[in-house]
Amino acid sequence: MDLKTRRFQELIEEQLFTLAGLDFRRLFSGFGLYADDTVFGLIHDEKLYFYTNDVTRVKYQKFQRTFFTTPRSKKAMKRYWEVPVFVIENKRMLMDWALEAIEARRAEK
């Protein structure tokens, strides 16, 4: 993992520090974001991806975001979509989007 990815992870951790049970675990040469045991996001190459469902995915598409593709196998993970930078920079908005991703993920377990 490169230093840029680690610093980006630290930024996300700072923005979401009040999220209960937040944890970061190595995943796909980046990090998985967990709320307790629920993986709801990914960090890879200085990009943040949140879990989506058919309803929540619409706003990611509205901002012309794209889904996560695994680094080596190039497998499309069409449930995880890139979070826009303006959302990452706004703590309250990022928290809202994170909570929505957690809810969407837990609903499908």
Write a brief structural summary.
The protein has 109 residues and is α+β, with helices and mostly antiparallel strands. The protein has helices spanning 3-15, 57-62, 85-88, 91-107, and strands at 22-27, 30-35, 38-44, 47-51, 67-69, 76-82. It has four helices and six strands, in the order H-E-E-E-E-H-E-E-H-H.
Commentary on this structure:
The protein has 109 residues and is an alpha+beta fold. The chain has a single domain (3-107), classed as 2-Layer Sandwich (Yope Regulator, Chain: A), CATH 3.30.1460.30. The chain is built from four helices and six strands. Strands 1-2-3-4-6-5 form a six-stranded antiparallel β-sheet. It is globular and about 35 Å long. The N and C termini lie far apart (30 Å). The model has no long low-confidence stretch (mean pLDDT 91).
